[in-house]
Input
Amino acid sequence: KHAQLGVTDRVHFITASLAKTMAGRAGFFTAPPSLRHHILSSSFPIIFSSCMLPAEIAGLQATVRVVQEDQRGRDRLKAITQRVRGALSAIGYPIHQGTEQIIALESGTEKGTDLLRNELEARGIFGSVFGPPATSKNRCMVRITLHAGLTDKEIDRLIDALREIAPIVNPWEWAIARRIPGLAQAA
Output
C-alpha cells in the first residue's frame, strides 16, 4: 500500500503478521538501521520474546518452499477464490471489501453473526467468528478461509449452503451492504 501511495520513504516502521501464510508463528517488522539497536534492546514487550523451536523453523522453511514453488496451488486457489467470490456476490453477499481467499461475511450485530454462524454450522460449514473487541461494535463477522486443497464438491457445498441461508440471514440488509451503492436495492 505504501508503494502504491508513493510514501514508502516516509514510513519508518512496517509490521506484518505472516501467521496465516505460514500456518504458524511468523511475522516481521522493518525499521531504519539507525534504530536497530534501540529496538532490539528496548522492545521486548512488543515482540515475541520466546525463541522458535527447531521444528517450527523447519516447518516455516518448508512452507516458504511451497509458497515459492507451488504455482499450481496458487492458480487453483485463485480460481477457487474467484468462483466463490463471484457466486456469493451474485447471491447478494456484500463481499466487495476484498479480493483474496479470506472472505469476511460482515453481518454486523452480534445477534446477526450468531445467526449466520449457527446456520452455517448446521450445514457443516465452519468459519472464524470475530466480534468486539476484535471488531468495532456492529461490525461482527464470520470469516471463511479458502485453500487450494478444497475440492469442487466442497466448493459447491459452501456456495449452496450460503445460497440456502441467504433468505434467513438477509446479507443485502447488513449495514455493510447499505454502504455499497445499489446493492441493497438490487437484492
In short: The two ends are 32 Å apart (CA to CA). The first helix runs from residue 2 to 5. The chain has a mean pLDDT of 87. The first strand starts at residue 14 and ends at 17.
